[in-house]
Structures
1.
Amino acid sequence: MVAPERSGQRLDRFLAAECPDLSRSRLKALLLEGLIDGPDGNGGAATITDPAYRVKPGQSFEIRLPPAAEPVPKPEDIPLQVIYEDADLIVIDKAAGLVVHPGAGHPAGTLVNALLYHCQGSLSGIGGVKRPGIVHRLDKDTSGLMVCAKNDKAHQELSRQFEARSVGRLYLALVKGRPQPAAGRIEAAIGRHRRARKKMAVLESGGKPAVSRYKTLEIFYMAGQPLASLVECRLETGRTHQVRVHMAHLGHPLLADSTYGRSGGALAKAPPMVRQALDDLGRQALHAAELGFQHPVTRQDFHFTSAPPDDMQRLLDSLRMSSPG
C-alpha cells in the first residue's frame, strides 16, 4: 500500500523499492506485458501498463508473475564418440564425467548440448526442452553406449522397446570381493533412500521393480583372498543407479563408488599400482559395454559393443598384474 510520503512517485520506482527481488527493468517488462493490476478509480481493479503512472496514497498493486520458463539448452561444440548415426538415431560412446542433460548444477556442457551441435537441432522433442533426443540415461560418471532419437517416431518406438524390456544392455563392473554365487538374478525394488534423498536404495516396501542378472567373469586375489571381481550385469529393468545399488545390496559394491561403496577394507592394503589406478579412476568402475535394439524404422537388429575406457582398463590391468596367476 502506498504511504503518503510516496505519493506522486513513478509506479516502476515504487514497485522496485517494494520488491527488491525484482529489478526495475523486470518490473517494467511485467508492466508492458499487462501483468500488474492497480485501482481503476471506481473501487475495482484494472491492468496498468504505464511505468510512469503516478501512485497515490492508499493504493495497492498486484503483480502476477508468470511461471518460470525452462531454459532452452544451447548447442555446444563438445567432442562426441559416435558409433553409428543415420536419419533416425545416433549411438554414442559416452565419456565418463559427461552429464546427460541439463539440470541442477549442470546448466550446460552436457550430452544434450553436444547433440544439439552435432545434429544441428535434429533431435526428437518428446523428452522436453531439456532432454531432446534422450531415450535413456547413464550416470554422469558411467561410461559407455547410449542411443538417442533424432525424431519423434524413433523416440516413441525406442521408448516402447525399453518399456517392453527388449533392449539388450550389458554393463561391465569391477566390484569388491567375490560374489557368491558366481552368477545370479537380483530382483529387488529400488526407490529413493529414506534418509539420504540423493541416494537410491533397495526397499522392502514401495519403490519400483528392478531386476539385474550378473555373472562373474574374473576374480583377483591378494594373499589368497578375493580382492575384487570383474562382473557383467544385464539389466531387465532400467532404474536409477540400478547396477550400483543391486551390487551393493549383494555385498559387493563397485570399486571407487563413493556413494554406495565403503572405503578401507582389503583394498586399503592392495598393491600400490592398484591403489594408484583406483585414485586415477576417481569414479565408479562401471561401463555400458553392449547395447542391442531393433532399428525403430527399418526393423534391422542392431548390436553394438564398447571396450572399457583407458581409466577403467588401467585398473583392470593392475588387478591382473597384482593377482597371482
2.
Amino acid sequence: MSKNLRASVLAPLAAFVLVSSAPATAQPHYLPPSGDNQRAAVTQQVGPVEVSISYGSPRVVLKGNDRRGKIWGTLVPYGLTALDFNECKSCPWRAGANEGTVFSVSDEVKIQGKSLPAGTYGLFAITGPDEWTFVFSKNTTSWGAYWYDPKEDVLRVTAKPAKSEYHEWLTYEFTEREPAKATVALKWEDLQVPFAIAVEDVPARWAAKIKDALRGYTGFTWQNWQQAADYCLKNKVNLPDALDWAQRAAGPNFGGANEVLALTTLARAEAANGKEAEAAKTWEKAVSLPGATSFQIHQVGRSLLAEGKTQQALAIFQTNAKRFPDQWPVNVGLMRGYAGVGDAKKALDAARLALKQAPDEVNRKSIEGAIAKLEKGDTKIN
C-alpha cells in the first residue's frame, strides 16, 4: 500500500477512534452494550393507558469494581452538572445508562398530580440526597444528557428518595398497581425513588375505547354490543351509548333478539335513560322467552343485586320460581333476593330448600355458610 493511500485510510480511522472515545458516541446495536449496561424495558397498563419505560441498566459491581456506597452523589452526581461534551453546562442525569431513558404513555396521565399528555418523552433526573426532580423532555433520541436543553422540558415533578432492598442492576419497577393508578420506582443499589401515575375518568376512557372497537370486527356479534352496554350501565357512563348498543344487541341483525341477556341489558339501558315504560315491557319479554332457562333468569337477578336494585332483583327471582318451581338454582335466587331486601326469615326458608338441591360440595358449603348467617339474622350473604 502506498504512503498516500495508507494515510487516506488511517486518517479517518484515527478520527473515528477519537470521536468514539467521547461519551456521546452510541455503541452500535449489533455489538454488546458499552459497560455491560444492558437495555431493559417495563410496560404496565394503568386503566386503559399503557405506560412504558425503556432504559439502560447499569450494575453496581462492574468488572470486579464494587461501587456500593459510591453510586449516589459520586458516580451519579447530585444536582445539575457540566458535561465535557457539546457544551452542556447544566445537565441532569439520564436516569439510566448509555442511550437516554424513554418514557411513553398512550394517553394523558397525571404524574405526581401534574398532567402529562400522551406521547414519548426523554426521562431525566436531577438527583439529591433529600429530593429528586424527574424531567420529562421532548428530547427522546439523544445519547445520554449531552444534548439536554431545558427549553424542551414538558414537565418537571419532584419525588422523595427512600431506602430500598438491594438492587445490583438499575431497575424500574411498578411497585403499586390499582385500576386507575400506579407507582413506579427507580431502584438501584440501596435506594428507590418512586413517583405516582394516575389516570382520570377511567370508565369514560374505557367506554371511548369500546366505542372505537365496535366500529371494527368486534361489532358483528350481539354479545360484544351487550357487554359494551353492560360496562357503561355498571359504571354509569355514556348512558345514551349504552342504550344504542343494547338496542343493537337485542335487534335482529346480530342474533340477540331472542336472548335473555341481550333483552335484560336493553331493559336496564332503557330504565337508565328514563324510559321506564319501555323497560317494563322489555323485562317481561326477557323473562318470558320460550327458550329462557332458570339459570339465565337467575343470572339476571344476580346482576340486579350487584347494582343494588334489590326489589327488582327479588321480583325476577320470584318470576323464576313461578316459571321453574323447584329447579336449581331457583331457591338460591329466592334466598339472595329476600336477603337483599332484609327479610331473613324468608331467605332462611329458601336457603334450606336450596341446600337439599345443591348439585355439588362447593354449592353446599356456600349455602351452609349463608344459613349460619341467616339464623343469626344477618342478611349480608355472599
3.
Amino acid sequence: MNFLASIQIALRALRVNKLRSTLTMLGIIIGVAAVIVMIAIGAGAQARVEEQIRSLGSNLIILLPGSVTSGGVRMGAGSRSSLTEDDAYAIQREIVEIQAAAPALRGTGQVVAGNNNWSTVFYGVTPEYFEARNWVIASGKGFEPADLTGSGKVALLGETVARNLFCDADPVGQVVRVRKVPMTVVGTLERKGQSLMGQDQDDVILMPISTARNRVLGGNIAKRRSVGSISIKIREGADMAEAESEIRSLLRQRHRLQFGKDDDFTLRNLSEVLGAREESSRIMTLLLAAVASVSLLVGGIGIMNIMLVSVTERTREIGLRMAVGARARDILSQFLVEAVTLALIGGLCGIVLGVTGSYAIGYFAQWRIEVNTQAIALAVGFAAAVGVFFGFYPARKASTLLPIEALRYE
C-alpha cells in the first residue's frame, strides 16, 4: 500500500466519525491558537522594549549631581549642584570611549501660544544632546552657533507640545512664550513615544542651554555653569563598565575628592536597566509559549485516546486487511497518517484562530502585537510532532495484532 492510498483510507476513516474527529482536533486547535497568541503578545512586548531602548539612546549613561546632607538628612540625588558644562566637555575630550557628552538644564513651566497654553518640561541643551539621546528633527532646523553663544530665543517642540499648542497647524516660525519669555519655534522633533516609566517623551521643549540659563531659569543658575544632568553616549563596541569607571575617576579628580570620600555625583547605566528589561520580556515570552504548549499536550493525549478507541473498534477490519496481504507497516502507516492528519488539520484551523485572535486582542486591548512566521511554523511543527508522538503507540498496537485473533474479535 502506497502513501497516497494510506492518506485516502485515513481521510475516509475520519469522515465516518466527523463529530468525534472534530472534538479530537479541538484540543490541537486551541493549543496552536494559544501558542500563536501568547508568542505574539510576548514578541510585541519585546518589540516595545526595543523601541524604547532606541528612543532613549543606545549605550547611554546618565550623570546626575550628588546629594546634600542637611541636619543628618540626605536630600537625594540632584540636590547638590556638583556638575558643570566643563565636566561634560572634559569627559568627551579625555575619555576615548565617549562618543558624546551632553550637559542639560531642566525646568518646568507654562507655555503659551496665542490663545492656547500647555504645562510642560523644557531642557536647555547643547548640540551633543541630539546625538546622545537619539533626537531627530522632524521639520525645520536645529540651533545655530549664534543661538548657543548669544542665548538665542529659539526652541524646538516635541510632538505633544506642538499638537496641544497649534493643533494641525505648522508651528515652525510661530512664537511661543516659555515662562513669559517669547521664543521662535525653529523646528519640531520626531515622535519618541513613552519611556520605560510611562512618561511621554514628546511632551518637551528644547532650547539652547545658554538661553535656559540666562533668560528662562535666571537667578543663581545664571551665575554659574552648573547643569542638572549630563547624558553620555558610549561608542559602539566599547566596554560600558570600563567607560563608567573612567568617568568616575575623571570626575573625582576634577572635583578634588579625597580617597574614601563619597562621590558628589551619581552614575546611572541605562543599558543595564534596559538590558534587564529586555531579558525579562524575552523570558516572559518563553514562559507564555510554554504555558500555551500545555494545551497542545492535552490535545495530543486526546488524539491518542481516540486512536486507541479506533483501533479497538476496527480490530476486525485490521484482521481482514492483514489476511488479504496487508503488512504490519501498512497498518502502522495507516493509523499514523490518521493521527498526523488530525493534528495537521487542527493545526491549520488553530493558525487561523490564533492569527485572528492576536489581531483582535491588539485592536481591542490596544496592545503591541507581533505575529511572525516563526511562531506559526513552530506551532504547526509542534502539532505534527504531537500527532506522530501520540499516534505512534495506537498505530503500533494495531500493526502487531495477529490476523486470526483480530478476525475472531467481537
4.
Amino acid sequence: MRLVFCGTPSFAVPTLERLASEPEFQIEAVVTQPDRPRGRGLETEPSPVKRAALARGLRIYQPAKVRTEEAFEFFRAVAPDAVVIIAFGQIIPQRLIDLAPLGWINLHASLLPKYRGAAPIAWAIAQGETRTGLTTMRIDAGMDTGPMLLDWQTEIFPDESAPELSARMSAAGPELMVRTLRGLGQGTLIPRPQDHAQATLAPLLKREDGKIDWLWPAAKIYNRMRGFAPWPGAYTTFHGSLCHLWGLPAELPAPETAAAESGELRVVSGDLYVACGEATWLRIEAVQREGRKRISAREFLSGARLAPGDRFGAP
C-alpha cells in the first residue's frame, strides 16, 4: 500500500515509525509543517515528525498551506493509495481528499464524536472524563466529522496529566492504524457515520483557558491543572503578580473552614490551602510567580508574608 504520511508533533512519531518498518506499506512522502522558531533563542527547528523522517531517509514536503496549487500537484504526482494524517495542523480541502482511493485516514485522540478539535486530550481531562481513547476515521472537509473505522479505549487515571495520557495514547496509535489500513486494503472495514448530535468540541487552547475561577469546586480546578499542563497551565494572581499553581483537592476540619471566601488562603499544619466553590478546598503543592522559578508551597509561604484574609485572584 502506497502511503503519504501527514503529521507534525511527537504524538504522531510512533505511528510513522511503525508504518515505515512494515513491509506491506511504502511511505512515498512525509508531509509536515514548515520549520518554526522555538525555544527561548527562537532558533528554527524541524518538527518531531520531520526529525523522524530524516532519520529514516524519507522524502519530506513542507507546504506552508496545503490549499495551494503546488500542494495539489504534489499529491497528485505522488498518487498514494491512502494518506495517514495525525495532528497535522491544517484543514484538508476536498479536492485533496478525493485524490486517495482509500481516503485520508486520521488517528484522532478521542472517542468520536466527543471532543472534536485540536486539543481533545486536554479538554477530556479538564472536563473530568474518566475514559477516552483513539478513533481512526476517514476524514471529510469538516472538523473531525468523517465516518469512523476503529477505536481503542482506555481509562483516564485520577492523577494523570495531559502529557502522561498523551504518551500512552501515542504508543497505542501504531497498532490501531496498522489494523485500520489492513482492513481497508482487504475491504473488511465498514465505515460508521458519527452521531453529530452527540458531538462535543475541544478547541485549540488559549492562554485565558488557564485562568482559575475560585468559585469553581476544587475538583474542577484540579482537572484543569492536569488537563492544561504544560500550557497554559492553571494560574491566578497574588498581590498583583501572576501565579501558576499546582495542587490537589483536600478536606479541612470544620473549625478551619469557617467563613472562608473563594480564593482565601489558609495555613494548616504548615500546608497552604485555598477555599474553592461548593465549600471545597485545594491544597497547594507548588507555586510559580511570574518571572520566577517554580517553588514548593512551603517555600512560597516562607516569603509571602500572608496576612489574614489574603486571597488568590484578588484585584
